[in-house]
């Protein structure tokens, strides 16, 4: 596996030591070569087949030209599947993402640290906003988050942090006890988006999770009037 993709080093990977910038990433999204971004994080859940949700979800995302940023157990699950090496792009990624990975020399799945380093993903997203061309708020970016196999209160806390920052976030496994209340479920999965830009969703199928995230990314692309995807 290739690790060590901090929010700072991405500047140099994309722009070089003397012209460090996020501009190539923004331009790839704007031009339609890259569909968008996904943060996939979280634990392994003993109630599920070990690693299955992580790897199935991520493979579906990168197949659809979504660059995946990971931390912790989720990243290790995908590393064991060989997804965290540059060569994985040729085998698993869509043509647009594949071209980017080959040009820059990165894997289609970037390991950004341990399970408590999720804020790095949000900071990287804020750099994308600063670079320009993709909206004025984190909720504008064609991006989504997911915790496919969450199992602890820490994951719920991190999920609230992502949603409060404006990120559409999908929780897999058995959702925490909100689906018994119609009002609370509606608030978390619908009403919140109009208040803070982000919202929750819950799903027990990794392929459906990927589809929900892709649909959200496409919605954000349309809102920004971005160019159609090159290879879709």
Task: Give the SSE map.
Elements: H1 9-15, H2 23-31, E1 36-40, H3 52-63, E2 66-70, H4 72-80, H5 88-92, H6 95-104, E3 109-111, H7 119-131, E4 143-147, H8 153-164, E5 169-171, H9 182-196, E6 200-202, H10 206-223
Parallel strand pairs: 1-2, 1-4, 2-3, 4-5, 5-6
Beta percentage is 5-15%
Low-confidence stretches: none
Q: Tally the helices.
A: 10
Major β-sheet annotation? 6 strands, parallel
Helix/strand/pairing category: alpha/beta
Please give the radius of gyration in angstroms: 16 Å
CATH topology: Rossmann fold
**How many domain units?**
1
Order the strands across the largest sheet as they lie in space.
3-2-1-4-5-6
Query: How many beta-strand segments?
Result: 6
Shape: globular
Order of helices and strands: HHEHEHHHEHEHEHEH
CATH architecture: 3-Layer(aba) Sandwich
Task: Summarize the model shown.
This protein is 47% helix and 10% strand. With 232 residues, it is α/β, with parallel strands linked by helices. It has one domain (9-223): Rossmann fold.
Describe the protein in words.
The protein is of the alpha/beta class and 232 residues long. The chain has one domain: Rossmann fold, CATH 3.40.50. Helices cover 47% and strands 10% of the residues. The chain has a six-stranded parallel sheet, with helices on both faces.
């Amino acid at each position: 596996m290739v690790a060590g993709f901090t929010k700072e080093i991405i500047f140099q990977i994309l722009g070089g030591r003397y012209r460090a910038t996020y501009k190539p990433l923004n331009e790839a999204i704007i031009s339609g070569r890259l569909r968008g971004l996904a943060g996939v994080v979280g634990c392994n859940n003993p109630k599920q087949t070990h690693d299955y949700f992580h790897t199935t979800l991520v493979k579906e995302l990168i197949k659809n030209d979504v660059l995946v940023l990971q931390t912790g157990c989720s990243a290790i699950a995908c590393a064991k599947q060989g997804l965290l090496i540059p060569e994985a792009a040729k085998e698993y990624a869509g043509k647009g993402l594949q071209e980017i990975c080959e040009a820059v020399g990165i894997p289609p799945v970037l390991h950004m640290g341990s399970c408590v380093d999720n804020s790095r993903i949000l900071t990287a997203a804020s750099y994308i906003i600063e670079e320009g061309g993709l909206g004025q708020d984190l909720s504008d970016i064609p991006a989504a988050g997911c915790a496919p196999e969450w199992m602890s209160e820490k994951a719920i806390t991190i999920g609230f942090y992502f949603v409060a920052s404006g990120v559409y976030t999908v929780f897999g496994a058995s959702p925490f006890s909100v689906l018994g209340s119609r009002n609370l479920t509606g608030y978390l999965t619908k009403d919140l988006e109009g208040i803070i830009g982000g919202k929750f969703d819950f799903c027990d199928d990794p392929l459906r999770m990927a589809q929900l995230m892709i649909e959200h990314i496409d919605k954000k692309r349309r809102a920004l009037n971005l160019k159609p995807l090159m290879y879709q």
